[in-house]
What does this fold into?
Amino acid sequence: MCWGVCPNTTARLRTGKGKTMAAKIDAEKCTGCESCVDVCPVEAIAMADGKAVVSDECIDCGQCVDECPVEAIEME
It folds into this structure.
């Protein structure tokens, strides 16, 4: 997908009504390793109660998806 190759997120994915896709974290799969927090270029992921949480600042780059060792993150 384009988010894995676009260094400046100009090729953002869009869904109906012009909304941009964003990372969605499955809290049941998340182990709290913080790999996604470390790789996020805009600091849009934080930890809450030992689990990763994505803010509205997500720019759809997909780096967190690629980095997650347990595949707990998807773009939606």
Q: What stands out?
A: The first strand starts at residue 14 and ends at 15. Strands lie at 14-15, 19-20, 23-25, 45-48, 51-54, 73-75. Residues 9 and 59 are 7 Å apart (CA to CA).
